Amino acid sequence: MGIHMMTPLYEQVIKKRLITSQFIARDNNRTVRSTWGTWPPTRGGISLRIIGYYALPSAYLTSGHFYTVSYYLFRSFLDFGDISLPAAARLVAAWLSIFVIGNPGDMLLKPYLIVEEGLQSDPVVVNDWYSQNPITTNLGQISRADIITGRYNDIPFTQDGLDYLAAAGDKKFCLLSQYDFENVEPYPYAQTYAYVNYNSRQKGDGYWPILKLQYYPA
User: Fold this and answer.
1) Could you tell me if 126 and 73 are in contact, meaning their C-beta atoms sit under 8 angstroms apart?
2) For 81-96, how does the pLDDT look when each residue is reduced to its tens digit (9 = 90+)?
3) What is the pLDDT of residues 19-46, one digit of tens each?
4) CA-to-CA distance for 202 and 55, rounded, in angstroms?
5) Three-class secondary structure of residue 216 per DSSP
6) From the CB of residue 154, how many other CB atoms can be counted at a distance below 10 Å?
7) Residue 1 pLDDT
8) Residue ranges per structural domain of the chain
9) What is the pTM of this model?
10) To pair with 90 at 20 to 30 A between CA atoms, which of 41, 50, 141, 192?
11) Which CA distances in Å does 105 have to 50, 64, 94, 182, 191?
């Protein structure tokens, strides 16, 4: 009577390799600023302006706020174009990686830098601020207390963020402060500034914003 040798399990299973793909932000990244003496009109969008620091030699974008005699609120916009994954691929994790060059201010009350879907035009126009206002879905976040300046910092995506990334179409993002996202006026006025500066696409290799996707192929 012959002996039947069972094939080891690891020989029966074809292991699928986890793949990480990276995408570079397009050069249409911009910061839009709103400013007024009180919070409600500032958050709603007033005296809007596109800030020119995205270009060289400065080459950075800003998200957050500061207060002097008026509020200054900043939203930054990133566009990665069409990043469609292979058919039937299973996305398991993703990060938006930004090279942070400044991170001053309040990190206790509402410390998060939030990523939401961007509804900006191409090129970005100031009225994109109004298109962004109704968005309420948090696609990803990082506590500013965890940010290290002078290096890349990875913002992990939530499940809502993964769902957005897995869907077809161009991928655009707006980065904004937790105060802005929740529409909560910074209080007391001692919380006069809380913002993040990070390098734009124009800064070049080693500094530009990167979208990292981790997935199993079909």
Assistant:
1) no
2) 998 888 888 999 999 9
3) 999 999 999 999 999 999 999 999 999 9
4) 6
5) strand
6) 15
7) 43
8) 17-216
9) 0.91
10) 141
11) 23, 10, 27, 18, 7
Question: Please, where are the H alpha helices in the chain?
Answer: 9-12, 39-44, 128-132, 159-166, 178-182
CB 119 within 8 A of CB 132: yes
What is the CA angle 74-80-84, rounded to 5? 140
> Residue type at 97?
S
- 195: three-class secondary structure by DSSP: strand
Please report which helix (H) or strand (E) contains residue 176, including its range.
strand 170-177
Torsion angle (degrees, nearest 10) of CA 134, 190, 77, 202: 180
Pairing of strands 210-216, 60-67: unpaired
* 3-class secondary structure, 48: coil
Q: Quick check: 216 and 90 in contact, CB under 8 A?
A: yes
d(CA 130, CA 46): 10
Joined tokens for residue 135: 């968005």
Query: pLDDT tens digit string along 94-150?
Result: 999 999 999 998 787 888 999 999 999 999 999 999 999 999 999 999 999 999 999
Q: pLDDT for 62-78, tens place per residue?
A: 999 999 889 999 999 99
Angle, CA 207 vertex, CA 206 and CA 210 arms, to 5°: 95
